[in-house]
Design goal:
globular, alpha/beta, single chain, 2 domains, Rossmann fold
């Protein structure tokens, strides 16, 4: 199976053939994957070099000129390093673009802290009007990218990572899918966390919801499942900073007595290299770690 990043490059190249309004903006990262597309569309595959602020600035300029730009690099270089440009050149100018990151929270663990971005979604939450997709499988990544490219002039962030579920679960953008039902609690698994979550709650009487789009947050489905289950305990399992979506879940359940547990990447920095899988375990996001914390919370 190809990775989400590989699928992105293939899909974006095809989209350039299909839609003359699209452009891909790169900052060296993944440029080798767009060599053929650059030859076919030299005016719409733009590599600005190792200049991440310019990456976003050029994206904003293309949007102001009526294009639908797709900007791509690692998450730490796409959201964190050029955040001022994201805020001013996209949000303040009120123009649309598609930002597609790779690397997840710690996929490139050997690259050190500069290549880790568990706070990217939380940072975008400080801005207005962003749709955020977190696919859990390459097939989902392709579908969400195609939807984002055709999504008018909206601002969309597509977060890609190495971790993937075994099978795709196609869900309409902006909707949570009920995967299983129970009565002792509701667990919301985001993107690539679904398989680990299902393994973690095996034998527990809980509902599991799945989200591949977290912004907008599907308050309706969460609220309906909590009321159906008669459960007051809600757990969020996200592949980025723990608690990122807790305010949205709390708002959704403002008129319902409840308890919330947000699981994800800890704020504490792991000063180790290793692999992304080792980081998943170290943050307690593997099945064993999730089960331990979920069962303790439900007790």
């Amino acid at each position: 199976m190809d990775t989400m990043r590989e699928r992105f490059a293939t899909t974006a190249s095809r989209l350039l053939d299909e839609d003359p309004r699209l452009a891909v903006v790169l900052a060296v990262i993944s440029s080798d994957r767009f060599k053929d597309a650059a030859r076919a569309h030299p005016d719409r595959v733009i590599d600005v070099g190792i200049r991440e602020q310019l990456l976003v600035g050029a994206t904003g300029g293309l949007a102001l000129a009526g294009m639908r730009p797709i900007a791509h690099t690692f998450a730490s270089f796409l959201v964190e390093r050029p955040f001022e440009q994201v805020k001013l050149d996209l949000d303040h100018q009120d123009v649309g673009a598609v930002l597609v990151s790779a690397g997840g929270s710690y996929d490139i663990a050997a690259g050190g802290r500069t290549h880790q971005a568990p706070g990217d979604v939380a940072l975008l939450d400080t801005l207005d009007g962003w749709t955020v997709h977190v696919p859990g499988h390459p097939d989902e990544a392709e579908a969400l990218l195609r939807h984002a490219a055709a999504d008018g002039d909206h601002r969309v962030y597509v977060r890609l990572g190495e971790q993937s579920n075994r099978d795709p679960l196609h869900v309409p953008p902006g909707v949570f899918r009920t995967v299983r039902t129970g009565g002792a609690g509701v667990v919301l698994a985001v993107g690539p966390m679904l398989d680990a979550t299902l393994e973690a709650v095996e034998g527990l009487d809980v509902s599991v919801l799945y989200a591949s789009t977290v912004r907008p947050f599907d308050a309706h489905t969460l609220r309906a499942e909590v009321r159906r289950a008669g459960a007051a305990d809600v757990v969020l399992v996200e592949p980025y900073l723990a608690g990122t979506s807790v305010p949205y879940a709390a708002e959704a359940l403002a008129d319902t007595p409840h308890r919330l547990l947000g699981l994800g990447t800890a704020r504490r920095e792991l000063r180790r290299y290793g692999t992304w899988a080792e980081h998943v375990t170290a943050h307690g996001l593997d099945p064993a770690g999730l089960r331990s914390r979920i069962t303790a919370f439900l007790r």
